[in-house]
Structure formats: C-alpha cells, structure tokens
Design a protein that fits this description.
61% of the residues lie in helices and 8% in strands. By secondary structure, the protein is of the alpha+beta class. The chain has a 5-stranded antiparallel sheet. Strands 1-2-3 form a 3-stranded antiparallel sheet, with no helix packed on it. A hairpin with a 2-residue loop joins strand 1 and strand 2. It is found in: Cell membrane; Cytoplasm.
Length: 582
C-alpha cells in the first residue's frame, strides 16, 4: 500500500503529517540532549563526591585498616562509574545526537522539495482546470449567440416587410455566430481533452510520485527513530559489563573488611610496650618516721601525674629547652608532623615501628637514587665514548648532585639505624607509667629510674630521692635556672621550713651526692660549655649519666674531679653515645 494510490486526495494532510513527524524527531533529539546533560552532571557529581571523601593527609595513618582500604576502593570504583557515565554521555552525543541532527536536516530538505514539486503540480492542474472553465464559458456564450442569430434570421426571413438586403444581413450574422460557436466548441473540446489527460497524469503518475517520496521520507524518519532508540540502549549496554565489574569491585571491597585484622592493627598502633603496674605496697606508718611517711605520700601522689609515655605530665613540669636554646636542631628537633626526629616521645613499641618505617623509607630512597646515579654514570660513559651523542660535562653536575643526595641519605640511614639500635637496648617496660612507684621490699623502699635501674633506700632517715626527684632536679637546680617544679622533693620551692633551714646550696649539694648514675656515656665530639649549667667535655671522654634526655636535647652527666670531687652539668645528647645500665 502506498500513499500515492490510497491518499491521492490528502495532499494537505500528508504535508501536516510529515511536518509533525519531523517535529517529533526533533523532540526525541531534545530528550537525548537532556539525558546527556543529566549523565554529564551525574558523572561530575560522582567524581566530586569521590574527591570530597578521599582520605586527607592527616588521615593517612588510618589507611592501614581494612575498612578504610575498602572505602578507598569503593571511592575508586565510584570514580570508574563516573567515567562510564561520561562514556555514555559522549557516545550519545557522537552517535545519537549527531545522527538525529543530520537526519532531521535531510528530511526537512527532501520534504521541502517534495512539497514544492507537489505545489507546482497542483498549480499546473489548477491552471488547466481554469483554462477548461474559460473555454467552456466561451463555448456556452458562443452557442447562445449562434442560436439567437438563427432565430433572428428565421424571423427576418419570414418578415415580408424587410428588404432582401436586410434578410441577407441577418443571414450573414447567423453564419458568423454559428462559426464562432463551432470554434468555441472545438476549443472547449480541446481544453477538456487536455485537462482530462493532465488530470489523469496528475493523479495517476505525478502526484503519487510525490506522495510516495513523502512516504519514503516518513518511513526513513520512523526507521531512524527506531535505530536511535536501539542505539541509545546499546550505548548503555556497552558500558554495562564495566559497571558490573565496578559493582563487583565494591562487593569485593566490602568482603575484604576483616574486623579481627583491624582489631589487631589497633593493638599494633597503640600498644606502648609497657607492663601493667604492680600492686601498690602497704606502707606501715608505725614503722616509718614522719619524714619518710611524708615523702612516701608525695611519691604516691606524683605517680598519678605520669603520662602514658612514662614521663612527668606536661602540665606539671617546665621544659629545660628555654635554658639551652642552642643545639635546638639536634636529634630531638620536631619533624613536619610534630614528632621528634628520633621519635623518643613515643612509647617503646611505637618508637621502634616508626624508626623501622623510616629506615625502610630511606633504604628505598637510597635504592632509587643509586639506580639514578648508575644511569647517569652509564650515560656519561656513552657520551665520553661518542661525543656526538652529548657532552659528558652536562651529566657531571647531575652526577655530583646525585652523589651528594646519596651521601646525605646514607648519613640519615646510619643515624636512624643508631636510633633504632639504642631503642632496642631499652627494656620493654623501662618507661612504664607506673615504673616509679615505690615498693617496699624487706623494709627497704625501691625507687626505679626511668631507665630501669633501682635504688635501695633504707628507713633510717637517709631516704634518697627517687626518679621523680632526679627527673625534676634539673628543672629546679641552679644550673637550669628554671623555677621550682611541682615534681621536685617535698617542700622544694614551696617555702617550707625544712628547705629554708637546709638552704638551697646545701640541698642541691646533697642531692648531687645522692643521685645514682643511670649509665655511662662516651663523648663523640668535643664540646665547649658556653651557657650556664653546661660542662665541657673532650672527644672520647667517658662520663656518668645521672639524668637521661627529657626531650629537650640535653643529658645530665657528671665526672670525677680530683680537686673538687664531682663536676656535674648538661651536654648535648647528640654529642654522646649512652650505655644505660640494665
């Protein structure tokens, strides 16, 4: 069935229908454009979502947990999903939108040609019908005139009053009118035949050809819409396997979460390596003098102010850094994340892990820098062998810089290996928060130093200060220049009658005599004392350690002086190598 035969008289309706069809095609194109915009916006929002929830630099330490790793993998899959939505949008633009635009343009142009041709045919037929109508009217007029002329002639011929000349004139008029009628009849017959032929050709050949062409265009439009709809679905189907893999990746990420492993990593992260505190001993006040009882009470109170890291609470002690503002960039300088360079402010376990990670990082950098240096050396050899390839001197500067970096990395590696070695030498519970608690053993009070050494103090009134006193003595000593610390011995700096009677000089002199050494140290470099409270030392000199570094970069030492007995003061920790007693 064709429009040409079935819809031969529906020219106007076909023109309207084809126009609406092209408008519907444009409507579908707008639908795809809107969907494309949604896909693009969705992809952009997915990428922004994944970016906003990417772990921050300060959260990098939490990435070791399986839940955090799974979430990072989910964000990665979300990014991949966004990429696939962008692929869908791009494919819709290239394959669908452009195809619809081209088809719509073609259909409009072809429809315009067909309608122009149909309009021409219609006008031609209308012109022929008008000519036929004029010929018919002329024939009708000529026929009436001829009949009237015949009647007039007959009347004149029968009228005896008219002359022969008058009758002859009527006869001539009749003959002329009959001739005109015959001519008009012939013209009408010719126009009628011509019109019938044209009309037959118009409705049987010319107009059906135009209608069939319009039918082809409309079918082409309909077929195009079908292909575009299927194509849009194919675009979605083409990314479906990748989207499915993204979803599978999310499922695998969720399945990779292991709560037991995360719990173990929490232990690894926060385990200090300290041992739990021992039982608090019973102190029989009836067997102690009041002064010893007062000191014992003070030591128990002090133990409650020790922090998790085994040092005196930061809000209870004044640092000595303010005294010795030189050598501030030694091993205890702070790193970018606010920790000390040797991580000495961390518990033993955490310190060892940090040092091991730093050593592994340095070893990796050394391997990379070594490979780069070897490559530069090979390049230099090639350039020396063939100068056309390049100038060896251009590599020389890079090679020297690489050697310098490599040497600096090796120095840092050796330094951190030394930190790790010293950290491994410290007993596991040497910095326990409760390590300084006083215990009664066989009538003696045992005071444990921060390095694990102990002092036995009898009960005859010659009690020696425990490690709490040794830690704080430098904070309140004349050498340090600091004000009184809350962690010093009872009454120190508090204006007590006992302390005033004893006198500051006598008190500190007695304190120095009572402090037991925590170990020994050997001077790695010579040091000239340039500030109050410090003492000089020579390279290779062995001294006694009476107080370890409190985080300010200084260690309190003493040595035997043949003239005055003992010299005591502070030296830079980075200048000495310590060996602490077990």
């Amino acid at each position: 069935m064709s429009w040409g035969t079935e819809l031969w008289d529906q020219y106007d309706n076909l023109a309207i229908h084809t126009s609406k069809g092209i408008e519907f095609l444009d409507k579908y194109a707008n639908f795809i454009r809107d969907r494309l915009a949604i896909e693009t916006e969705y992809a952009a929002k997915l990428r922004r979502l994944a970016k906003n929830y990417q772990p921050k630099k300060k959260e990098e330490d939490d990435n070791e947990f399986t839940s955090h790793q799974a979430f990072r993998n989910v964000l990665k899959e979300i990014n991949d999903l966004a990429g696939q939505r962008e692929v869908v949008a791009e494919s819709l633009q290239l394959q669908i939108i452009q195809g619809i635009t081209l088809l719509s343009k073609t259909l409009r142009e072809e429809r315009k040609k067909c309608l122009s041709n149909g309009t021409y045919l219609q006008q031609n037929l209308s012109s022929q019908l008008s000519a036929l109508e004029r010929a018919k009217r002329n024939y009708e007029k000529a026929y009436r005139d001829s009949e009237k002329a015949v009647d007039n002639y007959k009347k004149a011929d029968m009228d005896l009053n008219l002359s022969r000349a008058e009758v002859e004139r009527y006869k001539n008029i009749m003959t002329a009118k009959i001739q005109q009628s015959d001519d008009a009849k012939n013209e009408y017959a010719n126009q009628l035949q011509k019109t019938n032929n044209l009309q037959q050709q118009h409705y049987n050949e010319l107009l059906p050809e135009v209608f069939n062409r319009l039918q082809e265009l409309d079918e082409k439009r309909t077929r195009g819409i079908r292909e575009f709809i299927i194509g849009a679905a194919d675009v979605e189907s083409s990314v479906a396997p990748i989207i499915a893999r993204c979803l599978e990746g999310m499922v695998k990420a969720g399945e990779s979460i292991n709560e037991k492993e995360d719990s173990y990593k929490v232990i690894e992260r926060y385990q200090s390596g300290f041992t739990p505190p021992t039982d608090i001993p019973f102190e029989d006040l009836s067997k102690q003098d009041p002064e010893s009882s007062q000191e014992s009470h003070y030591n128990n109170v002090q133990s409650s102010h020790l922090t998790v890291k085994g040092t005196i609470s930061a809000n209870r002690i004044k640092k000595r850094v303010g005294i010795f503002n030189i050598f501030g960039s030694n091993k205890n300088s702070l790193t970018a994340d606010g920790q000390k360079e040797d991580f000495s402010d961390l518990p033993p376990n955490q310190r060892r892990k940090k040092l091991q990670a730093k050593i592994a990082e340095l070893q990796q950098k050394i391997a990379q820098e070594t490979a780069a240096r070897d490559g530069l050396m090979k390049m230099k050899v090639v350039y020396e062998a063939n100068s056309s390839l390049g100038n060896p001197m251009t590599v020389e500067g890079q090679l020297n810089e690489s050697e310098h970096k490599l040497e600096k990395l090796k120095i840092d590696l050796k330094k951190y290996q030394g930190y790790l070695e010293r950290a491994n030498q410290i007993p596991m519970a040497s910095n326990s928060p409760q390590a300084n608690r006083n215990n009664l053993h066989n009538g003696h009070r045992v005071s444990r130093h921060s390095n694990g050494s102990t002092e036995d103090n009898n009960e005859d009134g010659d009690d020696q200060p425990d490690d709490g006193g040794s830690l704080s003595s430098s904070s309140a000593s004349p050498e340090s220049g600091l004000g009184t610390s809350h962690t010093s011995l009872p009454g120190s700096g508090q204006g007590s009658a006992h302390d005033n009677a004893m006198g500051e000089d006598a008190y500190y002199e007695t304190e120095m005599e009572l402090l037991q050494p925590l170990g020994t140290c050997r001077a790695l470099y010579p040091f000239e004392a340039t500030s109050e409270g410090s003492i000089p030392m020579n390279e290779g000199e062995v001294l006694q350690v009476i107080e370890i570094d409190q985080g300010d970069g200084w260690t309190r030492v003493r040595r035997l002086n043949n003239t005055n007995g003992w010299d005591e003061g502070f030296v830079p920790t980075s200048y000495i190598e310590c060996t602490l007693y077990a």
